[in-house]
Amino acid sequence: MEKKRKKKGLLSLLCLLLPLAMMVTAIGCGKKGDNSSTSDNGTTTNGNGSATEEETTSKYDIPDTVGNKDYGDAVIRIASTNRSWYDDEVVVARATGDIVDDAVYRRNKLVEQRLGVRLVNNPMGSGGAPQYAVPAQIRQDKNGGMDSIDIAWNPVYSTIMYTDEGLLANLLELPNLNLQAGYWSRLFNETASIGNAQYMATGPISLSYYRYVFVTYVNKTLLNSVDNAPDLVEVVNSGKWTLDYQYELAKGYYRDMDGVPHNEQDVYGFISSPYLNVDPYWSSCEIEILKKDENNFYEYNLTDATTKEKLVRTVDKILKLYYDEDATYLFKPDFADESGNGEQNRIAEKFGAGTAVMATLRLLHVEDECVRNLKDKYMILPIAKLDESQTTYYSYQHDSYTGVAIPSTVPTARYEMLGAVLEVLASESYHEVTPAYYETALKVRYMDDQASWKMLDLITNNIKMDAGALYTKVLTMNANGLGVTQALRGIINANKGNTVATTYNESIAETIRTKLTTMQDSIKKLQGLT
Predict the structure, then answer these.
(1) pLDDT, tens digit, for every residue of 340-373?
(2) Angle at which helices 305-322 and 243-250 pack, to 10 degrees?
(3) 363 close to 212: Cβ distance less than 8 angstroms
(4) pTM for the full predicted model
(5) Domains of the chain
(6) Which of 30, 47, 109, 189 is deepest in the core (most CB within 10 A)?
(7) What is the C-alpha to C-alpha distance for residues 438 and 447, in angstroms, rounded to an integer?
(8) Which residues contact 335 (CB under 8 A, 6 or more apart)?
(9) CA–CA separation, 111 vs 224, rounded Å?
(10) pLDDT tens, 65-86?
């Protein structure tokens, strides 16, 4: 389990940082014009997908329409996962002087005051898989005719996978809840909605929505230690930040530091892992596992010739980047670590030691002490895309990021109140928590490089996860429960050539189609469509 940043009193620092944060917040909302559009988290972008410099109002000024209500001090029973990195995104017991803790505390107090409710969180689970405790409790309630949870605030993949059991209510039936508002994730809504319903939602309401995004860390000092080092911000903005470009760049930095070639002590152009760190390429290379039909249900898409060819090319490029010892050092997965993050911490430690130019890691590692103590200047970039023909740098979240759901066990008489609670939690999160974490903590406390701030906006404006990743634990490919997305990890980890054709063969496709049909038939029945 990752070590979290030790909290320190920051009240005096807050006074210095907030004016700067407000200045930073002003960046991102562009002038009205024919070539502008709204991005996934409400920012206005130009036609190239990069944030414009002028603004009319702060992007965080998106009011909800709930107003103030009085629900008579009703207790809202929230259930969440008992694990580090989640404990400060739901309920904070008191103001601590920490910028983010205080913002979460302030958000919750605003929700309670505006609606006349009390938010009570019950973290559930222990050991290596606490993320399954909340849905297990909902199932127990359902089978026993009980009602103990109002809001499930839990990792998406380990909750949405039980949709076909009827454990979750249709969020579209809740009064006061407007999932089209800018403080909910539009791209997640498009992916997660199914048929005439949506069973989970996410966005800035969850800190893990940002923390769990995979990015490319770049040591600027090492990068510029060679002649003719590129301006990587310009490379990204010009659309040239591809897997091939990253490979050619990584080859130029290897140095043997101890007389034993190609070991962990040496300097490398790139460090990563052939496990979790493979997942982001599903999004960054735009490989669509499941696509929607005309009725908003899913169809398996990896048998499509164009899609499979793109997956083959992606694997070729990943293998080339990962297994050139003069370019890359790989940390094998540490399955002994119950959190599943052992190798992630080792990557962060090596990057923090200043012995790697580039590293694939989740954004949360900017909070690690080893990265904060890096003496060199560093920046972040998106995960490299497949080729220059792609117009967008899509970002992928580790599937443990959280979302919110209403258990089906909740009486419908509470729907009006819970819809209001979710909506105000989301809007006040966007008003209070996102500026504190995203603008002040991430951009000012953890990253002093303004180019990284713009890259961060580019990354978080285009967070996209395929439905195949959301339901990867449903769409398993063998008796061992290997998920459809996880099989790509196996190809890269094994390093036995490009085995896409045999891994995702027609027999496997039929297995996945059968499981997809079974799941969706159950959901159609729940929705009254059959």
Answers:
(1) 678 999 999 999 999 999 999 999 999 999 999 9
(2) 10
(3) yes
(4) 0.88
(5) 11-210+398-460 (3.40.190.10), 214-396+466-526 (3.40.190.10)
(6) 30
(7) 11
(8) none
(9) 48
(10) 999 999 999 999 999 999 887 8
